[in-house]
Every structure is written in C-alpha cells, then in structure tokens.
C-alpha cells in the first residue's frame, strides 16, 4: 500500500519517478468530497499523484483548535485508494516536517495577508507557507491543487510561488458544497447535526447577494440581517473584495473580478465561504 510515513520512505519512492509529471494535493486529513475532487483533478493532469496528510501545528492560532481538529487516517487512506490504489500518500510525523523547532518562518505577502483570515488569525499564513514550502521541497510537484473555499490561502500561495520562483503550477479548484449549500470543510464534522443543517443559510445568503445586482451597502445589510436571524452564528466579517488585491472594493462592479467573503464562528468552529459577484 503506497502510504509513506517518514521522509526516507518518501525519498526512496520519489526517486523512482523523477521524470514523471507529479501532482500534489496537500491536506490536513479528515478528507471530504472537496478533497476528493482535488485528487481526481490531479489524477487527470499528472502521471503520479501525491496526497499529503499532515495537521500542521504552525498554522493554528490556539492549542484547542489544533487538538479539536479531526483525524481519520485509515478512512482517508481508504477513500483515496477507492479513487485509485496507486496514489501515493505521505503522512509524516511532526518531527519529519519540523526536525528542529516547531515554528513558522516569516514571509512577505504584498499585503494579501493583512485582511480577512490574515487579520483575524495572526501568523496563520506564515504557518501555511512554511508547511507548503516544505512539502514542495520534498515532493517537488509540477502541479499543486488547492480549493477556492480557502481563496485567500490560494491567492497567497500563488503570490509566493511567483515571487519565490517556485517551479510548480498552482491549480485552483471550485468549492464543493454539501446538499444544503454549506461549503465542504473538515471542520463541518465538528458541528452538531442541527447546526450543520442550519449552516446552509450562509451559502443561500451569499447566493442571493451575488446574483441580484445589489450594491455593496445593500449586500452588507442583507448579510447582517441574515446572521441576526441565526444568533448562534457570530459574523466575523462580510466583505466585497477585489480578487487580485484582496482589498475591499469601493463599489460592486460585475465587469470586474470581485467576490463576497464571509467568516463566522458557531459552536467554537470557524467557517468561511465566498462567492463570485456577477
Ligand atoms: O488547506 C489546508 O488544508 C491547509 O492549509 C494546507 C494547504 C494543507 C497546509 O497545511
């Protein structure tokens, strides 16, 4: 079974396929259909696919969030092998990825990290880039796949790859949703059944705002009112943002690439979502 749990095993395997086009899907495990869609996309476009499963401590802002993060290695391996039993899985230990200190290196992100998740979660993106750069270094993928649910993460990774001349193409993949519209996330597992069902209102709200030609102020008040009807959900931000700069726009303009972003917490779980403004 191609499951590698330390660097030596990974290197031995990697050496055999040096000339092959290699796709990487980095994950923190607890795989859902969103991850599986990334893996299927990687399968189409590459000769070899690596999925990494590693709950990266340096991107969490507090110990309780890290400890609560769902872990299900065996189910994850089974789900990947259902897609294709030749997909390689790398599930390293903390010591493999952080042989010295468990800490994030600092990066400059051209201001992309000063808004939304970056503003609310200090050092989060330094942690993400620290681990993604380590994974790119050991796997050397030609392509790497990231979901648009974490749109800010995707933008920051694209920017880092460009400025640091990393020879890996970043492939964005669309958000996959649960039947009620809730964006798929490993964190959804932590919600009670009732709250998970109720959380469908987040996407319904975004969809309403994105397709009714509403102005920015109307969008903000519609979202605030929608959250007021679901008081257990704390709204952290609702912003209309330019896709390239990630800065809040002065006004909605369907001719430009803009999205609405929201972040909320419920039952101690942070949920994020976004939608294209058209
Ligand atoms: O999106 C995630 O699951 C994580 O941030 C990533 C990219 C795997 C890095 O730990």
Explain what this protein looks like in three dimensions:
With 278 residues, the chain is of the alpha/beta class. The chain folds into two domains: 171 residues, HUPs (Rossmann fold), CATH 3.40.50; 87 residues, Pantoate-beta-alanine ligase, C-terminal domain (Pantoate--beta-alanine Ligase, Chain: A,domain 2, 2-Layer Sandwich). 39% of the residues lie in helices and 19% in strands. The protein has eleven helices and nine strands. The strands form two sheets. Strands 1-4-3-2-5-6 form a six-stranded parallel β-sheet, sandwiched between helices. α7 crosses α8. The longest helix has 16 residues. The chain is globular and about 55 Å long. The termini are far apart. Bound molecules: pantoate.
SSE blueprint and pairings:
Elements lengths: L2 E2 L2 H10 L5 E6 L5 H13 L2 E6 L9 H6 L4 H11 L4 E3 L3 H4 L18 H5 L3 H16 L3 E5 L3 H13 L5 E5 L19 H6 L1 H11 L5 H13 L5 E9 L15 E9 L2 E8 L2
Parallel strand pairs: 1-4, 2-3, 2-5, 3-4, 5-6
Antiparallel strand pairs: 7-8, 8-9
Helix pairs in contact: 7-8, 10-11
CATH architecture group name of the largest domain: 3-Layer(aba) Sandwich
Strand content range: 15-25%
Distance between the termini: 46 Å
Roughly how much helix do the residues carry, as a percent range? 25-40%
Q: CATH topology of the largest domain, which one?
A: Rossmann fold
Give the low-pLDDT segments: none
Write down the domain tally: 2
Q: Mean of residue pLDDT?
A: 97
Count of helical segments? 11
CATH superfamily of the largest domain: HUPs
Give the CA-based shape: globular
Secondary-structure-derived class: alpha/beta
